[in-house]
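User: Okay, second chain of the day. Same drill as before: sequence in, structure tokens out.
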Amino acid sequence: MAAGPWVFSNLAKLNMFEGATGLLKNGSANYRLALLASTWTPAPTTDEVFATMSANEIAGGTGYTTGGAALTAVTLAQTAGVVKFTSAAQVWTATGGSIAAWRYMMIYYLGTLNGKVNPIVGYALGDSTPADVPATTVGNTLTVTMSESGILSAT
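Assistant: Same drill. Structure tokens below.
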């Protein structure tokens, strides 16, 4: 006789992500959004910590800060069985030069969780073509807005 599928209660789903050592600790201010150049090659089966891809981060000093920017309004919530992790948009203003062209955006946790230093949450293309997002020239803003479905959404 075959067993049926496991069913996880809505709050159990939330608890899996949120626990004291969970990657998506609710309300944490320790998440960073970093921008990576097209020189980086994603390796979804082995990418785990920011250090392995940080050499491909765009240069700081022109409105962008090396290491990325802290995400704000970080939330982890469960509604109707869907757990959603999201944040407010991130805005950089190019000053003293252009913010370099970039291809990938990476979210990681700044700190140590489960013995991993700066573990990544995930990454996305800035332009789904895929193509580089052009440089942001002096005085202009670069805004990265999270998807309506969040940074991560799990059912």
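Helices lie at 10-18.

User: Thanks, on to the next one.
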